[in-house]
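Morning, I've got a small favour to ask if you have a moment. I owe you a coffee for this, so here goes:

…
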Amino acid sequence: MKPTLIAAAELDRLETWQKYSSHMCGGCMSSCCTLPVEVKIKDLIRIGIVDEFERGEPAKNIAKRLQKEGIVERYNQKSEIFTLQRMSNNDCLYLDRKTRLCTIYEKRPDTCRNHPKIGPRPGYCAYKPKPQERQAPSRNLERF
């Protein structure tokens, strides 16, 4: 059976996103980890960025501290949602550049846990296949 080729999605064009299937993740470049990650205070506590005792502190003050530390990009006071800072290439701060795996997977935010059930296009993902490794041609070394 031939493998099915799936075209790479474009993050800004939701119509290019693929219907999600769990087998896709292992062969993907983790493009979902380049989307903005919105988190709540409980996520920040789980990740270990905020201590439990800080929960009573005004979220605005926590946001200011985390912005100075380069962890939070912005904070929406009305919704109490923090947006995590991303690297210059839009990768999540917690995405390993080489393996393309989450370095805090067990503690990841609810937004990541629930993707792609929720997100810009529920049930779909911005699948980008990992580049295939080139193999050297095999040579027959048998003697005649």
